[in-house]
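Q: Sequence in, structure out?
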Amino acid sequence: MKKKFLILYLLMITVFTVSCSDDEGLQDIPIGAPSNIDAKISFTQDNSGLVTILPKAENVNFFYADFGDGSELSDTISVGESLSHIYAEGTFDLTLVAMNAADRQTESVQPIEVSFNAPENLEVTIENDGVESNTVNVSVTADFATSFEVDFGEEGVESVVSGSIEETLSYTYQQSGSYTISVEVMGAASQTTTYVEENFFVEEILVPVVPAPRPSEPSPNVIAIYSDRYTPITVTELPTEWSDTNFEEVVIEGDNTIKYSNLAFTGIVTDYGNPTDLTDMDYVHFDYWTPDASALGFKLVNTVIGEEDMEFVESITSGQWVSVKFPLADYAMDRSQVTQLLFDTAGNRATVYIDNLYFSKEVAQEPTTSAPVPTQDASNVISIYSDTYTSITVSELPTVWSGSGYEEVSVDGNNAMLFTNFDFLGIVTDYGNPTDLTSMTHVHFDYWSPNAESLGLKLVNTALDPVQEDIENAGALTLGEWVSVDIPLADFDMDLSAVTQLIFDNLVEADADDTVYIDNFYFYN
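A: Exactly. Output:
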């Protein structure tokens, strides 16, 4: 089988080479190997053994398959297309091969069991979600089963949900109460197996039992009002004395949360003497949880010039945390001096929990222009990485112990280092010939990141016993643009005469998935 895959692979690469040879735009695009290969397998319930396979993966252009039953390899299929195959009864290893235009391929093996017996040894689990109100989860195990369908039994609405046997199917009822839930389990056989549960009681949850989702926006792009995730700005009134609500702060699994009960409207004052400038922000975000609200709006007020506007949540969802993100462009007002923020239930009093209230800026995910061209005289530079200077030879870039993905990419015709899933990344100059930096006064690098919250550079002298090292912080980060960093070498409290390791670090204790571009990394005097 491997030999057959190799022959077909070489033919495919030949086609891609010919078709892409004149496409200069593909030459500098970094594409990783295909990953997360999976397939939706559907059996025709007619004892025919006909199976439909819908493959999916990331970073993929096309697929082909070895069906595992001795038949020929499949033709190639594009992303989103399916292929069919007729199996005899038995158990087979379906091998899917995902390929892309970067000449990379990944294989995945998925077992397929074909039986013309009706599903048997059926076990059905039906339970209330426990977190989302009026929500029920159903899972099934059975021999000779591939899929199942659940009729959740709510009249007047479409309450039938189907999925593969490995899935847990969920449904949210409009109201709590007793319902009859029917489960039909299918395989490759024409005969199915059913299970019925009568008078299952669907529970309503009146208070949140888990905290709001943790926001993922990088803190340099956030103005926070209330959130444990970020450091909020200081507000002078929360709530205001003229708010029409009961207010308390509650703790949900260690997360501070605002609870408004009997809420008509409530206000927050940032600072009348120092209004908040939101002109550089793109969105307002908050998470809400309510058992009974029918409307919820969020108002911005500029009391300096007397302008205000309010946006309403389009459709309220009860009994679960919902994240709301309003574009600030929807607010028809001057946002340069905002002093008041208000939640409003449009005259329908309700209980509403609020968390993660903040404003955020949208940032590009990759640079479109190259880093600034350095201007230091080359005679005064020891370069590690830069198209402008002749860099010294380094023995490891990156080191095998780096906690980061690495590749060299072209940005607007200029080479740059790209760190993905960035935790830390090391460079070794030369253990046998350490780099003497005593004649240099500064270290320089340019960074670009869409999401990093901090960045540091460590210098290490392994020639000494004990080893000497020190790390310096690049300072508050600016995201979505190239930023030049110059750190005096005098700030590094160590012997700089025999430096062997250079380590970029995100300065975060836990693992992170930051993306950072680095260019023009050099020392100078």
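The first helix runs from residue 2 to 20.
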